[in-house]
């Protein structure tokens, strides 16, 4: 009896766990058994691995081969284990030395001819191996740029199983990643291209400075989508930690660019209004894949024509908006994906979407029902509401408006002020500060808080809405470089919340 061993990584959500793969060659009729809660794709790897080893020129053992993946209670999904399975069998057969193999993690799917194919989730798998103290990891050659984003571990790439076997025997070298140049381009256009809409532009600046959620309503063609697309251009670039976090999510979604995988700019995700709840928050059979809310992590989620989106889909946004995380429960466990994003909603005021309100042919009940899909609890989580109106000829033919670069400077200064204020508590934007901290640790003067108290007494807003108005007031204060919000700042914040009801 001979025993071989190799290691790989199981990724659930953006969290990984090391998997030990043991290969036992015993007496009996030639067969391959796979144990350790494998799914269908992994069960089929028995045939892929056997053909890949044979077509590489190595001899497959004649006896009974048992492959065990530990921990045995952890469900194993996908084809990422193929390379480690093949090497474990060769180790058990004595075909490769165990010296290098004992300190190396293997990732990759095998083709029948021995080619190493790419797999999803390489970046979180490499992060898991590094955090577990491993010194070397072998990944598919096509994923080398992605894996090379991680420091503190030796990353090498292979295009064929033959190359891995030669490297284990000390007879050849594998590929190493080249220095990746981050893509710093900011898609989405410039804010100077938007004509007029001074109030909406100001609301967009406040939303960018504080990380607030935004609702834009108005007739079609007025600039709602243009404004939303330019919001990522006002946000500061992602930090190194945030870049890896966002890139890991897109790696699990299989949406990374091959040559420049590192995401350094805030992502902009705009799903179609016919999207399903699973596509919005994540899901799917087997391994739960990240949805639109997670792919928009640290960026912007834009829902155009939000009144046309299904009610269940909209209500599924409640938990991510409040907690900044999505938990997808499956029979075999829970996949967690971060989902801290800025939500921008855009909608027409009624089904007929007339350019002028006087031309509307919708009955009052139809107008009320149209935006009624946006429930009270969901609207309560929106910080800024803006009703956009048409522009006169003078505004359309006017001069050039402020560019995104000019507004971005003010946004960056306001965000720096917020970081200095909240850094001892672990918050980075005003939108992240919990309500109890605003009331107890950073209370506003009675004169400044009086408008909020009045709105609460009259039942015009909930306690959660009051907290959000105070957060917006802090952002307005930061934009004017003030020390403490005044009554005027609070009134401006309340005005943002009351615009949606008009």
From TrEMBL:
Residues 210-368 form the AAA+ ATPase domain. GO terms for molecular function: ATP binding. SUPFAM superfamilies: P-loop containing nucleoside triphosphate hydrolases, Ribosomal protein S5 domain 2-like. Pfam families: ChlI, Mg_chelatase, Mg_chelatase_C. Coiled coil: none annotated. PANTHER family: COMPETENCE PROTEIN COMM, MAGNESIUM-CHELATASE SUBUNIT CHLI. Belongs to the Mg-chelatase subunits D/I family. ComM subfamily. This is YifB family Mg chelatase-like AAA ATPase.
